[in-house]
Amino acid sequence: MKKHLFYNISFLTIIMSCWGVSSASAQAVEAVANNSTDNNEIIIVTAQKRSQKITEVPMSLSAYNGAFLNRIGATELNKVAQITPGLVIELQDRLLPGISLRGITSDDISPAFEPRVAVFQDGVPITQIASAYSEILDVDRIEVEKGPQSTLHGRSALNGGISTFQKMPNSEFGAEYKLGVGDHNYGLVQGVINAPISDDFGVRLAALIHKQDGYVKDAETGDTYNNVDARAFRLSAQYLPTDALSFKFTGTYDLDDTKSGGAFKSATFLPVNQATGAVEGTTDFWTATHIGTFGTLPAPYTKRKVLGLSGTTNYRINDKAELTSISGYRWYNACQAGDIDGTTTNILAYEQCNAGKQYSQELRMNFKNIGKFDGFVGASYFKANNDANTDLAADERAVALLMKGVLHKYAPIGLTNSQINSMLGAAAAVYKPSHIDRKALTADIETYDFFADGTYHLTNNFEIFAGGRVTHDQKDVTLQVTTPNGVSKLTGKGLLMTMTPNGSVVSGSISSNLTTGRVGLRYVFNPSVNIYAVYGIGKRPSMLELNSNGGGDIIPAEELKSAETGVKFALLNGNLIGDASVYHYNYSNFQTKQRNEGVLVTINAGDASATGFESQLSYKITKDFSVFGSYAYNRARFESGAFKGNFFRNSPDNKFALGMNLSKNLQNGVISFAPLYSWQSKIFFSDDNDRADLQVRSPAAFSDTKVDEFQKEFGLLSAKVNYTPSSQKWTASLVGDNLLDEKYLVDAGNTGDSFGMPTFVAGARRTVRLEINIKL
After folding, report:
1. Is the bond into 501 cis (omega within 30 degrees of 0)?
2. What is residue 169's DSSP assignment?
3. pTM for this one?
4. How many CA atoms lie within 13 A of 631 on its CB side?
5. What are the φ and ψ backbone dihedral angles of 182, each rounded to 5 degrees?
6. How far is the C-alpha of 265 from the C-alpha of 151, rounded, in Å?
7. How far apart, in Å, are the Cα atoms of 576 and each of 388, 627, 675?
8. pLDDT for 286-302, tens place per residue?
9. What is the DSSP letter of 54?
10. What pLDDT score was predicted for residue 595?
């Protein structure tokens, strides 16, 4: 039986009762759909490495401050994605989020591959996807930049980036804490404290515990899969010794620790009780099942620790020059074990661990009003040591029938392990009940960047800008594949992987030099309306992918060329704020994955392109009523090779969101209502679009000719109701997500697809929670 959340948090609750944010937070930028406050102010962003109004930045940009995120009940990035045009996050689990921006997905867990969509925490790049996803806790703002941003943010921002900034301490002492309970055993305890130590120094602390059951039940135990058991801690400090000098520090620590694995469910075989042979459910992805590990692998679990540190120093030399230094360190360790065949029978299971540490340093000089010229020059250094270790376990008795195509003949009921052993007869004693293939990968990465960007004001209304970045990248990689408990009885060698020569370590190195950049113009019609056009080039460095025979394949550099034009406006005294943009990009050497005799290999899918339109709008109709919306059209397709005509994975052609905020003054307080509806069109979960002609494999039993690894169009409705008394000392909130209880997928195919039995992962079901926020 699971312990109730509050059995484990009584000590933290006592501490949190003294924590919170200061009353000054009520004066934070109150953006409706990221733009405007109740005072018609415009949110300030730093997407161009300097503070600017969002309406002045010549790029497609969405930004959300903490007050707005709280208002719509956003506690994780996937809620942010619902309202952001062009951004899609498919959350299989926190270790492997599929982050897609304008159709280009970044979720490769290889320790040497660069992300295509950059993720930043307080200016520090997060280059490994397993450490990129975290709780939204005490956030000042989140910025989402679209299009090639290599000049501004490095080569990891090939097609944009997501930047999160923590709140800095302010000058007033304050404390608040939040308690939440809900269905699916939801529980939350959160606290924040803001403490000014002196006139020029302050600290801010935040912490939370978040627990929740998953949405797919275990048919035999009543437990669930994909549970959440998270702890998060945030620390920020600020020292302002003079008007010209400032020091800022942030520290983040996230811990996920659950005893449940991923909810990979087979649609090929029904869940069958292994003891009785009785069918326990259906193949529908949202219904109960029973899956687990076997042999020497640990029971299903997910555990992740992430530590991030960032220090920023700003020194204003004079009115025209400012020097900025950003130092970063990040360490993480993420492990998970579970069932990857999605059936109740012991066939395939896994344990995977990814770990890494990185150091980064950026030094930048910003200058302004040098005649008609503004801009910056800088250099950065990045070093990372990453590794990934994977154990794939196979019950050789079941795999013997799988390889011969016998197991599939018994679908959809399948065979129990006892029935398999009986069918094999004496051979069952020869085969191993748990064979393990083990792969170990390492990557040591070292990168130097030099960059510059400048804006020249031709007139008061017309400006041109250009920038570039030169990158030298060095990677040293190793590969080792072994069979730790002996070679397979079926093959006399590895079973699911090909061993490196005698189980030795093979290694290689690759270096590359990249040049990326942008050029554009901006014209200001009047203080309320301006237009821009920008052309940018983004690249992802070439890579050496080692193979088990000791050789290696050069994965060529990917290149994205993008043109965009747009308009930004703030009309009706700033009550109507929005933007719209159209873009087209061409992609060269697009690297994707394809199944080859049960092995997932990197292939060059060749050329691809996309044409799109994005818009977002917020309108404050009255002081107590505002609406916002966003829309994105993105037609992203492959143009050559075997994938010609295919959709990009995780890329809907159409996506929109509509929301509002309505408040009403009562005699003793204020009540507010904030509904949100988001919708997206059909997506595929792999670049091969599950096409039957691309699923033909050897042996024939591994061919999957059924096209079902996609998610059709669907919409999600959420809402939040708040009541705050006149004293403003507390707020009660009722929050509902997926209120229509839409049944949808967040992933499909996966490793099981290599063996002709794809697995499916269900998205979040309807949840309702009650939260009490108390200020002290």
Report:
1. no
2. P
3. 0.90
4. 7
5. -170, -175
6. 43
7. 49, 10, 19
8. 999 999 999 999 999 99
9. G
10. 57
